[in-house]
Design goal:
3-stranded antiparallel sheet, 10 strands, single chain, elongated, alpha/beta
């Protein structure tokens, strides 16, 4: 029968980055079937429900192998017509700033990094990056988001980086691949982890045993 890979992922990573690429993984690994669940709760490995989890931030559980998924760039993104009116970081004070509640990096951090004081929050609030990105693409304001998560909207031109090269972006490790240390690694997980790091351009030694 098919080899089953049971993945859990942070919702925005699943929606914005992983799902659009899964066809490539499945094409290269015939016989592997992926079951993907997305949620903000962490995967329960003790119930043997999942093989791996892609978490936002650091996992809160001991006994896991943690593979950092490389640095992401956090920078203002918005629709092109809005970007035409933004030439310097201080110009953002005249615009609606979309808030991403669950982000580790907030507008106050970005303004501080650019030597400015953040204006009072004036925009819609979303609890997920993929919602903030969608809102920015619809012209609701400027979002402060990961270029990795917004890559399709940036590639299509629905979103642009108004201050690219004109402001300090923030770089950080946003996501980690985690799986139980004690499990004898099954082939589909090894194949997936190897593919994931290659797709992300992350040069890392996978701490995966044989089996």
């Amino acid at each position: 029968g098919p080899k089953l890979l049971r993945l859990h992922s942070a919702p925005s990573f699943a929606a914005q980055w992983l799902t659009p690429r899964l066809s490539g993984f499945l094409r290269d690994h015939p016989g592997v079937e992926v079951r993907l669940a997305a949620g903000t709760d962490y995967a329960r490995f003790n119930a043997d429900e999942f093989d791996a989890d892609i978490v936002y931030g650091s996992p809160r559980v001991e006994g896991l192998t943690v593979v950092p998924l490389g640095e992401e760039t956090i920078t203002p993104i918005c629709a092109p017509d809005l970007a035409a009116r933004i030439a310097t970081p201080s110009d953002l004070c005249d615009h609606v700033l979309i808030q991403s509640d669950s982000k580790q990096i907030q507008w106050t951090d970005w303004f501080t990094a650019n030597g400015l004081v953040a204006p009072a929050p004036n925009g819609s609030r979303f609890d997920r990056s993929f919602l903030a990105i969608a809102a920015a693409a619809e012209g609701l304001g400027v979002a402060l988001e990961s270029t990795r998560l917004a890559e399709r909207e940036l590639a299509s031109g629905r979103l642009v980086l108004p201050l690219d090269g004109k402001a300090t972006a923030i770089r950080y490790v946003g996501h980690n691949l985690v799986f139980p240390r004690y499990v004898r690694q099954r082939h589909p997980l090894r194949a997936f982890a190897t593919w994931l790091l290659a797709e992300l351009g992350v040069d890392a030694k996978l701490p995966l045993g044989g089996g």
